[in-house]
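TA notes, week 10

Several of you asked for a full example with nothing omitted. So below is the full record: structure tokens for the whole chain, then the designed sequence directly under it. When grading your own attempts, check the secondary structure regions first.
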């Protein structure tokens, strides 16, 4: 099918103008990024970007010589429809893998015909569950494609000929016949799930395989023309377990048929980039490591046969470090021109002359750029969230303290722009094991700061990024060491001259919800209120809330973090805030999800019931009918955070007022929440609450509220 492109009305160029801080609308910050990736063709002449505009997920393309883009693919934001992956095959062929109607998976191949500064496209769809492993950019119309073999329950790695697929009538049966004719690089291999391919000759070098009791990695031995297993993870929970749940071993690339590059913390504390001998099955050299932080990822150039870059999080900032001087100089220049903390090269042309840059930090959700190395020219492409461009956001300040284990605990204090003292919201993260808060843009944090609250995030013991020992220190520390770390950094924040230590609240999600309530029991002097979302409050209930939680594998996973239900039952019960609810003396706001299979809503229902029966304090409870362990729709976030700000204003922000210029934002937020209650889509329909919020919306100047108030039979507004 062929059609000519039509120009989109979006402008690729957006001027960078800073303005004074003002209130941001909840629906502008709690939404999908409008632009979230750009890829460049091998020739460096054409870009493809992904956008979310007017209720559609779209791909658009434009040439490097123009600022006007044309839509090349579109999916309605409905049901399970989803763009999964997209990229270039060669300089005039691209692909998009997507989930369509009736949960069917497709790959669309798109041919470009270029005409000066514009182009036409021709495309065809192939129904298959699969993904492009390597575009084989130096070979026209060829790609390495991992296709699900449903009969054998594995993926086959096929060298596909796109023209051959296009030449047959577009039916699943016809395409399957063509797939069967392609060279299968993984022929004869069972249970394959991961492939590593050389960019030199597009040969399969390493594979990952899964089996009932173990997973393996193997390397191809050219001398014996066979596959040699070099790493195995036994999954049996009772015996022969050769790894910890905190151990990491991730192949990056093959140096040759004997040595590989991998990320690993096996036999060490911090994750490092290592050289691994596949014959001896052991580490033989360290290629890159940090004394303070885990290495998150690494790039290995299979053509030059060398490690080119690593990424890690340094004091909350994610960084890409290049290991060669020319790229180090380039990155320094980009930092000076762009001015954001995290700058990544996310794509490049085949000759590496044209680069796609993504930059972000805590003050900005992200910007995309095109950089031409030959010309030394940086060209702005688009903001990830253009609607937020008029607003200013705040950078976190690093706070550190040493705990009783001699560990350095890091946290980040975000302060509003105004110079006066601000009420504080302490926000422990979920997990608690293997999660990390960073000093980067976070919608929830910035929304609260925008509303005038200082926010403290904390990487307590158990957090990721600081090594295996630090993560392990958080195990079985519910209500103990973790909360001690949170208190340690809270006291540090209280000492800051811009923080009002007499007006603090603690708010968390998942484990953070547990910690919020528990901290008010252990450290009652710290907080005037608690807010918990999707939390757990009855630790023994974790093992029995659902049938799935009673399986051995799930029980083993829960025990690893919380403690053994049989051996530690009394301790688990003693550290459950539900059984100490009489000690909760502060107003408590509770959110839960009806479909939550991680923190079953029964946890929140029980806490709400007990606190209500005790009558010692105010308790407010909201159960989201369509939410699980978090929201599937941004309307849930909008309701949750507008409700949170209203609760905070009442309990720790009592003297806070909003200028008249912000009334339109308050009108918008109250209207959105009022309509959520009016429609009863995300929370139970509540006409009284709908009336209250719609009246507030009308008071602040939203004329839309009047018609819905009349429909409720309300005329005195």
């Amino acid at each position: 099918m062929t059609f000519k492109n039509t120009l989109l009305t979006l402008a690729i160029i957006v001027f960078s103008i800073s303005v004074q801080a003002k209130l941001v609308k909840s629906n502008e910050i709690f939404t999908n990024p409008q632009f979230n990736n750009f890829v460049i063709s091998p020739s460096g002449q054409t870009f493809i970007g992904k956008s979310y505009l007017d209720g559609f997920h779209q791909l658009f393309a434009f040439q490097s010589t123009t600022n006007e883009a044309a839509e090349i693919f579109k999916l309605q934001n409905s049901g399970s429809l989803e763009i999964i992956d997209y990229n270039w095959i060669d300089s005039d062929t691209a692909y998009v893998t997507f989930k369509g109607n009736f949960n069917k998976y497709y790959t669309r191949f798109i041919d470009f015909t270029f005409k000066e500064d514009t182009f036409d496209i021709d495309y065809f769809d192939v129904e298959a569950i699969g993904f492009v492993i390597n575009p084989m950019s130096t070979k026209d119309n060829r790609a390495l494609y991992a296709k699900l073999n449903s009969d054998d329950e594995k993926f086959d790695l096929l060298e596909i000929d796109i023209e051959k697929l296009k030449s047959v009538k577009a039916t699943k049966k016809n395409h399957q016949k063509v797939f069967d004719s392609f060279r299968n690089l993984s022929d004869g291999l069972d249970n394959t799930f991961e492939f590593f391919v050389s960019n030199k000759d597009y040969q399969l070098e390493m594979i990952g395989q899964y089996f009932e009791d173990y997973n393996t990695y193997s390397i191809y031995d050219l001398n014996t023309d066979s596959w040699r297993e070099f790493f195995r993870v036994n999954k049996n929970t009772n015996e022969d377990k050769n790894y910890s749940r905190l151990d990491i071993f991730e192949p990056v690339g093959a140096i040759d048929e004997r040595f590989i590059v991998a990320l690993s913390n096996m036999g060490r504390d911090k994750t490092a980039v290592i050289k691994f001998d596949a014959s001896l099955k052991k580490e033989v050299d360290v290629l890159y490591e940090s004394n303070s932080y885990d290495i998150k990822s690494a790039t290995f150039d299979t053509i030059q046969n060398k490690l080119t870059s690593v990424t890690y999080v340094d004091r909350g900032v994610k960084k890409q470090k290049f290991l060669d001087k020319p790229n180090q100089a380039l990155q320094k220049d980009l930092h000076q021109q762009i001015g954001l903390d995290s700058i990544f090269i996310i794509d490049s042309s085949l000759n590496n002359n044209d680069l796609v840059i993504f930059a972000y930090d805590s003050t900005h959700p992200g910007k995309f750029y095109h950089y031409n190395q030959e010309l030394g020219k940086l060209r702005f492409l688009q903001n990830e969230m253009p609607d937020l461009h008029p607003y200013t956001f705040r950078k976190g300040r690093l706070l550190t303290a040493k705990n009783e284990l001699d560990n350095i605990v890091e946290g980040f204090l975000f302060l509003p722009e105004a110079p006066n003292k601000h009420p504080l919201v302490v926000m422990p993260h979920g997990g608690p094991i293997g999660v990390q808060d960073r000093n980067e843009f976070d919608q929830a944090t910035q929304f609260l700061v925008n509303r005038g609250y200082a926010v403290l995030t904390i990487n307590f013991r158990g957090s990721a990024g600081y090594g295996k020992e630090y993560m392990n220190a958080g195990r079985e520390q519910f209500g103990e060491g973790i909360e001690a770390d949170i208190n340690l950094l809270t006291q540090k924040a209280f000492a800051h001259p811009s923080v009002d230590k007499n007006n603090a609240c603690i708010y968390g999600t998942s484990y953070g919800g547990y910690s919020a309530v528990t901290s008010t029991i252990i450290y009652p002097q710290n907080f005037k209120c608690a807010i918990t979302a999707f939390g757990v409050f009855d630790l023994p209930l974790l093992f029995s809330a659902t049938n799935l939680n009673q399986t051995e594998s799930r029980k083993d996973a829960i025990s690893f973090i919380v403690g053994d239900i049989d051996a530690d039952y009394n301790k688990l019960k003693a550290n459950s805030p539900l059984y100490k609810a009489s000690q909760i003396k502060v107003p408590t706001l509770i959110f839960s999800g009806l479909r939550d299979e991680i923190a079953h809503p029964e946890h929140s229902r029980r806490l709400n019931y007990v606190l209500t029966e005790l009558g010692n304090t105010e308790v407010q409870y909201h159960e989201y009918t369509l939410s699980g362990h978090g929201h599937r729709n941004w309307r849930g976030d909008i309701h949750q955070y507008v409700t949170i700000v209203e609760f905070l204003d009442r309990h720790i922000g009592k003297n806070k007022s909003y200028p008249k210029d912000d009334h339109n934002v308050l009108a918008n937020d109250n209207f959105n929440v009022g309509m959520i209650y009016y429609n009863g889509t995300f929370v139970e329909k509540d006409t009284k609450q709908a009336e209250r919020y719609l009246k507030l919306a009308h008071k602040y100047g939203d004329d839309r509220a009047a018609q819905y108030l009349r429909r409720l039979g309300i005329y005195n507004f």
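DSSP finds 15 helices and 36 strands in the chain. Use that as a sanity check on your answer.
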